[in-house]
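User: I'm new to structure prediction. If I give you an amino acid sequence, what do you actually give back? Let's try with this one:
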Amino acid sequence: MANKYTDAVSGNTAFKATEKSVLMVIAHCAKPNGSAFPSHRYMGQQAGCSKRTAGRATQLLIDLSIVKVLTKGGYDLEAGKNWSNTYQLDLDRLNEVTKADVDAARKVMKCSECGYPHTLKANDPDYEAECRYNKWEHCPERAEIDAILWLFPGEYFAYRDANPDNPWPYPADWYALYPAHKALVEREIGNPHVMTLEGLRQMGML
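Assistant: Good question. You get back a string of structure tokens that encode the predicted 3D arrangement of the chain. For your 206 residues, that looks like this:
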């Protein structure tokens, strides 16, 4: 349902498509006072991106002071379920933010190692793992990696278990182990069912 927040997002041209889509999801979920509590998974599903990408877009919005975290989510032992963060949208800030502001914030967020923004702070124990994930998620051989996982899930997950520091095998590494797989993988690239792997990622299964 449209509201004053979605109207403001629609008229804003400062963001890239995915960032704007995530912001629109938050705006759609917002109450009249601007509070909203969509999870990163829900944002990703509605915006057509991964959970991590939604998290990075949300962090950008926080850095720009368009979104503020009112309460931190987490696992509730008594309720036995996870709670999402509660966010507050700042309509005035949303209306005044410029493309230069967004570009500057995005540049600050980029990691010098992987070249992409992080959702985690540098002192987080999972920061390096997220760095490796960023490299994999944006690599030009992504479709080939998806095909490898579709065709050889057993070998793929065995590789991940054996290589915790590099859990996403690049094609060159894979073919060094399994030379006969190359022709099979090349035939499989681009098949529609392989693309359903993105759905598995959004559900946290990959």
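You can read the tokens as a compact description of the fold. Here is one thing that stands out. Strands lie at 35-36, 67-71, 74-76, 81-83, 86-89.
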